[in-house]
Amino acid sequence: xxxxxxxxxxxxxxxxxxxxxxxxxxxxxxxxxxxxxxxxxxxxxxxxxxxxxxxxxxxxxxxxxxxxxxxxxxxxxxxxxxxxxxxxxxxxxxxxxxxxxxxxxxxxxxxxxxxxxxxxxxxxxxxxxxxxxxxxxxxxxxxxxxxxxxxxxxxxxxxxxxxxxxxxxxxxxxxxxxxxxxxxxxxxxxxxxxxxxxxxxxxxxxxxxxxxxxxxxxxxxxxxxxxxxxxxxxxxxxxxxxxxxxxxxxxxxxxxxxxxxxxxxxxxxxxxxxxxxxxxxxxxxxxxxxxxxxxxxxxxxxxxxxxxxxxxxxxxxxxxxxxxxxxxxxxxxxx
Amino acid sequence: xxxxxxxxxxxxxxxxxxxxxxxxxxxxxxxxxxxxxxxxxxxxxxxxxxxxxxxxxxxxxxxxxxxxxxxxxxxxxxxxxxxxxxxxxxxxxxxxxxxxxxxxxxxxxxxxxxxxxxxxxxxxxxxxxxxxxxxxxxxxxxxxxxxxxxxxxxxxxxxxxxxxxxxxxxxxxxxxxxxxxxxxxxxxxxxxxxxxxxxxxxxxxxxxxxxxxxxxxxxxxxxxxxxxxxxxxxxxxxxxxxxxxxxxxxxxxxxxxxxxxxx
Lengths: 335, 263
What we know:
The complex is a heterodimer.
Chain A (H helix, E strand, L loop, with lengths): L2 E16 L3 H10 L2 E16 L3 E6 L5 H8 L7 E6 L8 H5 L2 E5 L11 H11 L4 H15 L14 H12 L6 E5 L7 H18 L2 E5 L3 H7 L2 E6 L2 E7 H8 L3 E7 L5 H7 L6 E5 L4 E6 L5 H12 L2 E7 L3 H11 L3
Parallel strand pairs in A: 3-7, 3-8, 5-6, 6-7
Antiparallel strand pairs in A: 1-2, 1-4, 8-9, 10-12, 10-13, 11-12
Chain B lengths: L1 H16 L1 H26 L4 E2 L2 E2 H18 L3 H11 L2 H5 L5 H31 L8 H27 L1 H4 L3 H14 L11 H7 L9 H7 L5 H32 L6
Helix pairs in contact in B: 1-6, 2-3, 2-6, 3-6, 3-11, 4-7, 6-7, 7-11, 7-12
């Protein structure tokens, strides 16, 4: 299958000016300014197949948005090759953008003062979509996203969730084979998030649309993407299945106990001293948490040892969450 | 082409979205024309003509200059500055159209709207208060129409240039304000250019500004002879062509340097 996105050695550098301190410094800045060259994206390479849904994640300032802007032809790369949908985005911008849809979660692409349907009508003309095609495709999109009642309202009167659904519909007017979503669920409630996720899955299945998604909400990634590309300080630190990440990083299990009577931490440690267990006490609720290894019988040994000595009110066995894994990786800065 | 016409329609809708803006717009135009009328009447005092223009020609000049201004004037430089400052230009660049052409079309939409819905009602109000002589000559109207279309193009091109400087300066509010004052003065809106001293008039001949207001107003008031008119329109057309060069150059440079502000 052909690749929707091919990136080789992509780099983007920015000049960053720094101000000198004080009034004297400010005057000196008028004539000459200090600057550093910052590398926002550092020689990255990856490719995305047609029909894939890829999560593009990283801390704030890791270079995610800069990459997206180069892939969509807005920014010119400092060096490297980008081929998206078989074209060079910034060189053939007008022909290229006809084949992509973009949603920037923090910027609106609808016209603020006028009704949503007027924006749609303009975009329909801009992308040269025929009436039949529009009715067939957009009719479906409008029904699925449930935005029919919003069409005659000006954008400024919509709530964030309503606006976001309209933004998504606007990005799909020309039914593009490739969709870039830059934090599409930022600030949305659970119901709207679910609706948007279901909708994205549906168009992916129906039209084999490739989707590249950046987000800080990892539940989005878990729900939608099989593959994640993780960025840190402009470098790709992980590119692969989300599942593998969980298996290699999700070391150990957590077991949480609550007891009927009062129990000392030292007593617990004594009972389990043969096992590789680390205990933690949450004072307010009297929750005792044991961190153990991934060995097959570790959990049963631990519970057996505790039950034989204490009266238990409640036990919870927890897996390490994706969020926890990602946090660990961000802190360490490598995979 | 369809999309550009649609943009003009959208601009109409945007202008109509706020009714109060619309009504105050008419009022402001009437007040401006009125103020200059009384100012010039005071300056003329008892005199028949100044610099070859009669009182009636002068008041017509003022009224027409403002009416033409409604058409050629637009705020796309300020809009571009804002879009670039807030990073909205990113959204414009992911659409399959030329940003500058689209901005010009938005300006045209605004201009047509103002001409028919600000200027014409404003003129009617003003003509009730004091005498303005409209030419009955169809050729004058035709030449005037051609001339204000060219005025629009020159002014819009200057606005595009000013707007694009935001890509390099990041904040150019001062520049935009300075540009507006320079155009009002050097284009002959506030004062016919024939009132300036000879030396300054020579300098103006080498600047595009007189093509914005002075030329169409002089055509309308029959202040130009036929050959002068033709020459002036040719000069306007030449400026339109000349200004394309720096616009394209700046645009190519801007795209290379582009930094989207605010993430």
